[in-house]
């Protein structure tokens, strides 16, 4: 078995709900991420999928140490990140970069593209003068932008071009791991395909490892080798991409997949949709037991009392459920 | 169908050669440029396209909600039940808006007034159009809340919009849109921004409401998956024009316009194989500011030839009324 690039164990993040203006005290906790564990192997893509508020973005930020986890460990190549500070943390951050969702908000509007891509090199003091300028142009070329883009400002670019700039910036320090947080959800489909193809090409060419966070299952399935499905802060199911989509065993995964319309009227005509009732509960007041039990069509009494653990259902396909669906 | 007393024959809505332009300082934006479609009674027509293709402007034109200035309907007609909406005066329009034609917008948070209770907002148009008393209007609102699946209606009428989740707010918008038994419902990206399990609930609800009330629906969306499951016919828009129009099955099975074909191939499918290379469309849509002659897809098209640059293709029928395409070199015409 290969050695994982990244190991996350029992990661938990809670945000305080505070009351009071001068003397703030915590009156409750938002359970954003609860006891999440997974490994990411070099050169592979792990997809994190779930609906809004399921904790997928918080998980990504806890890995990057943009949020400090409440408990649990995050190890990049054996180095524990949660206890690192200052210079040591900055050095490690070279190895992990992020591409954000909103290409309009994540680029500084006052800097031109050349400056934006140059910034990581400046912060980490890598290369100088003509060499650094050449590196910036090389990076732009890597993501399919010509040298003339270096002089342009973000407002002059389309959404797809901005996302390419965000990617060039993430690539500047030759990172090992890139966390892509909803990188295509703000883009039109014809542009989305360009970016997805580019990500895949770069992974092959530069040997990158991705954590791909998205709410769109079709996109996650397309790019990921393995997929973890999150619900209300928990990973409820994790498996190889093709296996997960062919044989979902957790009722939530099943319902989520059933809710996604397939762009083919012949398929849609005969498809039976399992429509879940109600809304996702608030993570400030998570239900007892299994987080999914109030909306689950399989739920029985035990589901509201005990929390199921992730268990292997064969071939590394894990699911946290007392009454999993049959693998066909 | 529940509503049988309608006397009008012919299509519910007929949009003919509609042109809506915006007069900006830099020039004239041809947002909708000669668009024609019709919607039959009880039918759902899908209008698909990417951002900026003019699908929303075309819907706002039907409701005559284009801000003037800078926008104006400069040509064409919109015939709704034998009357032309483009020439109707404001007083007449108010009787139709929210009554015979109603609209559901994309963002349920910004389309509800945050400082008014839901009950007041729901009963406003009921009282205005149907001339009911406050209690009668509230009873009607209650019935609608129940129909769209909001429990505990009596109490919830006194709640404010922020007390509802996104999915619940969209249910309220649908209930409000249906409150006066509209003949036509325009749904502009009704599920965009909602989670997929909530999207499934809303689409399911719209289908049940159509079965119950028998209205026609114009569904505007960028999501081809949503179109496949809910519409009977589709019009594909690109850069202010309809480039292809067909029954939904026909369009997905035999796309003729290179843009439609490329669009279908660029979306990853849940039932497809993982990690295939997606076919992407190079470049980006053209600027609609004073557009040039010729086909607007010309620069991104892999089938383009010299004549596509000079001569604008017109929408022409291929086989009867089932399929129409605006292209000089449609895709699989020869192979059929």
Write the layout of secondary structure elements.
The complex is a heterodimer of chains A (328) and B (336).
Chain A: E1 6-19, E2 25-40, E3 45-49, H1 56-63, E4 71-76, E5 79-80, H2 86-93, E6 96-99, H3 113-123, H4 129-142, H5 159-171, E7 177-181, H6 189-206, E8 209-214, H7 217-223, E9 226-231, E10 234-240, H8 241-246, H9 251-259, H10 265-270, E11 311-312, E12 318-319
Parallel strand pairs in A: 3-8, 3-9, 6-7, 7-8
Antiparallel strand pairs in A: 1-2, 1-4, 4-5, 9-10, 10-12, 11-12
Helix pairs in contact in A: 3-4, 3-5, 4-5, 5-6
Chain B: E1 13-24, E2 27-39, E3 44-48, H1 55-62, E4 71-80, E5 83-84, H2 90-96, E6 101-104, H3 118-130, H4 134-147, H5 153-156, H6 166-177, E7 184-188, H7 196-213, E8 216-221, H8 224-230, E9 233-238, E10 241-247, H9 248-253, H10 258-265, H11 306-310, E11 316-317, E12 323-325
Parallel strand pairs in B: 3-8, 3-9, 6-7, 7-8
Antiparallel strand pairs in B: 1-2, 1-4, 4-5, 9-10, 10-12, 11-12
Helix pairs in contact in B: 3-4, 4-6, 6-7
Overview in brief:
Chain A is of the alpha/beta class.
For the biggest β-sheet of chain A, the strand order reads: 6-7-8-3-9-10-12-11
Q: How many strands, what sense, and barrel or not for the largest sheet of chain B?
A: 8 strands, mixed
In which range does the helix fraction of chain A lie?
A: 25-40%
**N to C succession of SSEs of chain B:** EEEHEEHEHHHHEHEHEEHHHEE
Computed Rg of chain B: 21 Å
Uncertain stretches of 5 or more adjacent residues of chain B: 1-5
Uncertain spans of chain A, ≥5 residues at pLDDT below 50? Answer: none
């Amino acid at each position: 078995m290969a050695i994982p690039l990244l190991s996350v164990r029992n990661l938990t993040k809670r945000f305080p709900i505070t009351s009071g203006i001068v003397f703030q005290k915590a009156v409750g906790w938002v359970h954003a991420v609860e006891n999440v564990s997974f490994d990411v192997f070099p050169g592979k893509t792990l997809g994190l999928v779930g609906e809004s508020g399921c904790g997928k973005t918080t998980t990504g930020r806890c890995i990057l140490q943009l949020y400090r986890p409440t408990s649990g460990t995050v190890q990049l190549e054996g180095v524990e990140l949660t206890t690192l500070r200052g210079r040591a943390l900055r050095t490690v951050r070279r190895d992990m970069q992020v591409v954000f969702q909103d290409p309009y908000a994540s680029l500084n509007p006052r800097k031109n593209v050349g400056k934006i891509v140059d910034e990581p090199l400046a912060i980490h003091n890598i290369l100088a003068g003509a060499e650094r300028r050449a590196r910036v142009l090389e990076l732009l070329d890597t993501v399919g932008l010509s040298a003339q883009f270096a002089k342009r400002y973000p407002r002059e670019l389309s959404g797809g071009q901005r996302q390419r700039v965000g990617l060039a910036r993430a690539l500047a320090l030759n990172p090992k791991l890139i966390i892509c947080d909803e990188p295509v959800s703000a883009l039109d489909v014809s542009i989305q395909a360009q970016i997805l193809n580019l990500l895949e090409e770069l992974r092959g060419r530069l040997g990158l490892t991705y954590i791909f966070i998205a709410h769109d299952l079709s996109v996650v399935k397309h790019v990921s080798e393995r997929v973890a499905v999150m619900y209300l802060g928990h990973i409820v199911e994790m498996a190889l991409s093709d296996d997960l989509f062919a044989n979902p065993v957790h009722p939530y995964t099943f319902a989520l997949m059933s809710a996604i319309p397939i762009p083919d009227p012949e398929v849609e005509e005969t498809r039976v949709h399992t429509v879940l009732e109600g809304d996702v509960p608030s993570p400030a007041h998570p239900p007892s037991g299994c987080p999914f039990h109030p909306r689950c069509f399989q739920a029985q009494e035990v589901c509201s009392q005990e929390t199921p653990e992730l268990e292997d259902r064969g071939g590394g396909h894990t699911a946290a459920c007392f009454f999993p669906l049959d693998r066909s | 169908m529940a509503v049988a007393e309608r006397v009008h024959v012919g299509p519910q809505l007929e949009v003919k050669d509609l042109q809506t332009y915006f007069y900006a300082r830099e020039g004239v934006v041809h947002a909708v440029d000669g668009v024609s479609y019709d919607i039959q009674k009880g039918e759902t027509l899908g209008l698909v396209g990417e951002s900026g293709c003019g699908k929303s402007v075309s819907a706002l034109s039907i409701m005559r909600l284009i801000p003037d200035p800078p926008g104006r309907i400069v040509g064409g007609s919109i015939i709704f039940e034998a009357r032309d909406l483009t020439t109707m005066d404001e007083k007449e329009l108010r009787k139709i808006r929210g009554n015979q034609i109603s609209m559901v917008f994309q963002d349920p948070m910004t389309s509800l007034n945050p400082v008014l209770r839901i009950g007041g907002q729901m009963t406003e148009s009921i009282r205005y159009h149907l001339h009911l008393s406050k209690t009668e209007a509230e009873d009607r609102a209650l019935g609608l809340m129940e129909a769209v699946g909001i429990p505990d209606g009596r109490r919830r009428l006194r709640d404010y919009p922020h007390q509802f989740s996104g999915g619940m707010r969209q249910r309220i918008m649908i209930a409000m849109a249906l409150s006066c038994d509209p003949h036509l419902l325009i749904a502009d990206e009704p599920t965009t921004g909602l989670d997929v399990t909530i999207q499934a609930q809303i689409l399911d609800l719209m289908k049940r409401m159509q079965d119950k009330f028998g209205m026609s629906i114009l569904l505007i969306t960028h999501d081809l998956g949503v179109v496949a499951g809910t519409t009977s016919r589709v019009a594909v828009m690109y850069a202010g024009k309809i480039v292809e129009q067909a029954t939904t099955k026909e369009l997905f099975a035999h796309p003729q316009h290179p843009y439609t074909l490329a669009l279908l191939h660029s979306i990853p499918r849940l039932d497809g194989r993982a990690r295939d290379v997606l076919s992407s469309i190079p470049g980006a849509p053209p600027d609609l500011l004073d557009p040039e002659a010729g086909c607007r897809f010309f620069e991104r098209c892999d089938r383009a030839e010299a004549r596509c640059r000079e001569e604008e293709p017109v929408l022409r029928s291929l086989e009867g009324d089932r399929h129409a395409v605006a292209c000089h070199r449609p895709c699989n015409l020869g192979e059929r």
